[in-house]
Amino acid sequence: MIEKLHLYVFSEEFKKKVEKIFVTLSIVSFILHLTLILINKVGIIDFPDNKLLTNPIVAIYTPFSFILVYEVFLVVYYLPRSISQYIRKQYEIITLIIVRRIFKDIANIDLTTNWFNEKYDLQLTYDLLSTIILFLLIFLFYYFNTKHKSISKKIEKVENLDQFIKRKKTIALLLFPILIVLAVSSLVKWIYVELISIDQVFFSIQDINELFFNEFFTVLIMADVLLLLISLYKTDKFHEILRNSGFIISTILIRLSFSVEGLLNNALIVISVVYGFIMLLLHIYFEKVQVKYAKEVKIEEKEQEEII
Predict the structure, then answer these.
(1) Separation between Cα atoms, residue 302 and residue 308, nearest integer Å
(2) Closest CA relative to residue 166, chosen from 247, 216, 233
(3) pLDDT per residue as tens digits for the range 90-108
(4) Backbone Cα Rg of the chain
(5) Under 8 Å CB-to-CB from 242, ≥6 apart: which residues?
(6) For a Cys-Cys bond, which of 30, 178, 183, 274 suits 63, CB 3.0-4.6 Å?
(7) Angle 119-152/83-105 helices, nearest 10 degrees?
(8) Which spans in 106-160 are helix H?
(9) Rounded distance, CA 76 to CA 231, Å?
(10) Where in the chain are the domains?
(11) By C-alpha distance, which of 144, 170, 187, 154 is closest to 277?
(12) Local structure of 48: helix, strand or coil
């Protein structure tokens, strides 16, 4: 039953359908946002003190929100395939959140000689630097993880692997409806705030992370802990347990970043990805040593047999 559900919900065909839906929503929302900006500028409808409806560049913020929700779907989609790939998707999401924030902050920048004394100018600087660092870290994470797959094939087959994959599929299936509920409830809450007062639209969009991603990363932490626990059925190797524990800590740091602003927010995000990357790197080199040691043991055993 679980296998059939997973084959349908997480099939390539279903993924493409979801992708088309969100691409369409992104395009429509972008055009709608631009239209609202035009209406505001012409003066047909006045949106006072709403900086998201003054600068056309900021309109990119809206489609990025839909792209982020699609990326959230991909996090759940890749969970049964690979834990490291699932974690990498989390890093991609938090990076895209910063990129989206850049488009919003463009509306607030003040091009003066006091760049480093202005709050929004500083935040833009932090975000620009953070995206470069995060992009590099994600690339390195992807590079070393992909390269490691060739090493993994040399390691003996892990017992209970099929059961472990089935359990991951179950977790993914449980996360999928939770994701839908979170997305719908966040949208309803956002619309509710918007309908109460037009002056609160900027506030609601600005704090959209609080509406969705806070809760989502909290759910991911619980999922990560569950993955760690069920991984014990597969293996009790120290380096794998420590890697998975490190990934949990990394996700917690990302979740904590939503509760702070400014430089500390960016620092927590970068530190979380650095920490996750280092844990992956140590895990890879640990297995390299194991493979190398295993070969030496076999050679020694063979030599002993020949002597005897």
Answers:
(1) 10
(2) 233
(3) 999 999 989 888 887 776 6
(4) 23
(5) 279, 282, 283
(6) 30
(7) 160
(8) 119-152
(9) 17
(10) 8-154+181-307
(11) 144
(12) coil
239: exposed, middle or buried (Cβ count in 10 Å: 0-12, 13-18, 19+): middle
- DSSP helix/strand/coil, 240: helix
- Distance, in Å, from the CA atom of 229 to the CA atom of 217, rounded to the nearest integer, reads 18
Reading the block at residue 139, the tokens are 């690339």
Alpha-carbon gap, residue 214 to 282, rounded angstroms: 29
Whether the CB-CB separation of 198 and 54 falls below 8 Å is answered with no
Residues 6+ apart with CB under 8 A from 229: none
Structure tokens at 198: 């037009």
Q: What is the pLDDT of residue 296?
A: 62
- 8 A C-beta contact, residue 304 and residue 261: no
Q: What is the pLDDT of residues 249-270, one digit of tens each?
A: 999 999 999 888 888 999 999 9
Q: How far apart are the first and last CA of the chain?
A: 55
Q: Token digits for 157?
A: 């087959």
Query: Residue 47 has which token pair?
Result: 């949106």
